[in-house]
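Hello Y.,

Per our agreement to keep a running log of every chain we model this quarter, I'm adding this entry. I've kept the format consistent with earlier entries: sequence first, then predicted structure.
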Amino acid sequence: MAAPSRGYWTVVLLAAAALKLAAAVSEPTTVPFDVRPGGVVHSFSQDVGPGGKFTCTFTYASQGGTNEQWQMSLGTSEDSEHFTCTIWRPQGKSYLYFTQFKAEVRGAEIEYAMAYSKAAFERESDIPLKNEEFEVTKTAVSHRPGAFKAELSKLVIVAKAAHSEL
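Predicted structure for the entry above:
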């Protein structure tokens, strides 16, 4: 039997590298929740990471229609230094009018965040809010009073673990 060729070992090494990259981010945890209209402020919160290291909280008030099924997905990097929080309506566009919204992270600082008036659904793409409609701080993404046009269907946050100074 002949020894495996150089090409064989290249394929084996590439496959091993691909498997390592695939394991670099934990499987996301997705939790459904209802967004309820009525103008009352509601919150939904989930922890992720070892020992609940990170928390993502979505606080909102909305008007019109009936309850909508939304989802919150959370995932962490292999080294637990980064986490993602995505809050969205899987059916794409929400028919509720949001009077306010805020997505906050605990245990981390936001590196990237985006808010969308319409979430991708079937062949349609995400439609981002205009930059003047929302603001991003180190720990939150929220509506900008007077500029936010009441349409929200998705929020995406990527955050890095906060380290306390000694």
